[in-house]
Amino acid sequence: MVKIELKKVSKSFRNFQALENISLEIKDKEYFIILGPTGAGKTTLLKIIAGLLKPDMGKILFDDKEVTKLTSGERNLGFMFENYALFPNMNIVENISYSGRVHARDSNQTQILVDQVLMMTLLTGRNTAIPDELSGGMKQRVALCRALLNLEQSKLLILDEPLKALDAGLRMNLRRELLLMAKSKELNLTVIHVTNEEEEAMMVADRLAIMNQGKIIQVGTPEEIYYNPTNLFVANFMSEINIFEGKCIKNRAPTWDIFKKSKHGDKFFAKIHEESVPVSLDIGFDDMVAAYVKKEKSNMLNHGDKIILVVRANHLKLRLGNRVEHKKNAVLGKINRRKFMGVFYRFEIIIKIKGQEKILIVTIPATKEVHNTFLENLEVTIYFPKELGIIFKHPGDQYIQEVLKLE
User: How far apart are CA 243 and CA 287, in angstroms?
Assistant: First the structure.
């Protein structure tokens, strides 16, 4: 059993506050992702959990026992460093099997484990190579293998950007292998994995924490964070978004039934209907739009409140021609640019809101029909399901500019 708990942990380096009042619980056998931009404090947090740094304030507990003052070696865990930290005078096998020798593990058992991780990471055949003879991606895989073989003393594996330098195909395969390994009956690991890649986090995480500027902004399952982000920063970090500024409308009825349920019986939408209520919004379209919000959040919105509506690029829908009268939450636009991205097309659509041009980003799966139909300069209708809009009280122009990195 390896359960991790942090209580009000803070860390500064001279005048820089790297971590501020971090409280977090990571469950036993959980694959936990710490996600955030560069400089958010992710690696500092990992090093404090691992015992490589001491916090200025706060406590760290492993299985309800305080380990704040224990060294990294005394905490008995596997740690993969972002900079690999390989022994330059040792070959691949010697680097990987180092912990086995230190802990006097049976040499035959160690060799079996080495062969297994070499095969998993596609390093078989390079056994005698030294780090200077390896590419960055190979060094990263060796570092990962070494961390895996340091687990006989503990069931805690800590990974700092473990797949960062790998090519796309290998990265995808290793994500799957890491998850299968962590969840296997033989290991049943608790894994703490740092990344700044949203796709990587969504693929492997049981739960994840979003960090920014030394603080934890939100903790939850991938689904919770994707569909119910705490604020604009989290919403934007999880995928490409579109933002509409407007007002909450509560004192007049909309021209369409915003409570009407979808006919196709979608279970995901049905859950949203149970937990949330639709709210009418004026965002400058010809008609009012609506989006579902949690009931408690709806009670905090008053008529006339300034809001922002967030719609993810992949939640916007496209139809050829002017179909605004037949769609809800709809606006007319023109395809300004399209870009083939492999599994999807990314469209830039120009719309007009109160006479001002605005560019919307729409992403839809790449098919032959999409390729042949949605061409640049064509008129299209853009709309979104009311279940997939995200409403926040307006956080102020400066905050929006900082989050979106606008000039």
Answer: 17
CA 285, CA 257: separation in Å to the nearest integer? 17
Residue 407: predicted pLDDT: 40
What DSSP designation does 251 have? Answer: S
Give the span between the Cα atoms of 249 and 289, in whole angstroms.
10
The pair of structure tokens assigned to 301 is 């919105």
Contacting residues for 137 by C-beta, under 8 A, at least 6 apart: 165, 166, 167, 170
Q: Terminal CA-to-CA distance of the chain, rounded, Å?
A: 49
pLDDT digits (tens, 9 = 90+) for 177-218: 778 878 877 778 899 999 988 999 999 999 999 999 999 999
Q: Where are the domains of the chain?
A: 4-227, 242-307+394-407, 317-383
Count of CA atoms in the C-beta half-sphere (13 A) of 141: 27
Fold entry, domain 317-383: OB fold (Dihydrolipoamide Acetyltransferase, E2P) (2.40.50)
pLDDT tens readout for residues 57-89:
999 999 999 999 999 888 878 777 666 678 888
Distance from C-alpha of 364 to C-alpha of 320, rounded to nearest angstrom: 14
Q: DSSP state, 374?
A: S
Neighbouring C-beta atoms of residue 84, cutoff 10 Å: 20
Find out whether 219 and 207 touch, Cβ atoms under 8 Å. yes
pTM of the model: 0.87
Task: Answer yes or no: same fold for 4-227 and 317-383.
Answer: no
State which amino acid sits at residue 14. Answer: R
Nearest to 87 by CA among 73, 101, 74, 75: 101
- Positive or negative, the CA dihedral 120, 121, 126, 128 is negative
- What fold is seen in the domain 4-227? Rossmann fold (3.40.50)
Read off the tokens for 15.
Answer: 């005048």
Sign of CA dihedral 233, 235, 240, 243: negative
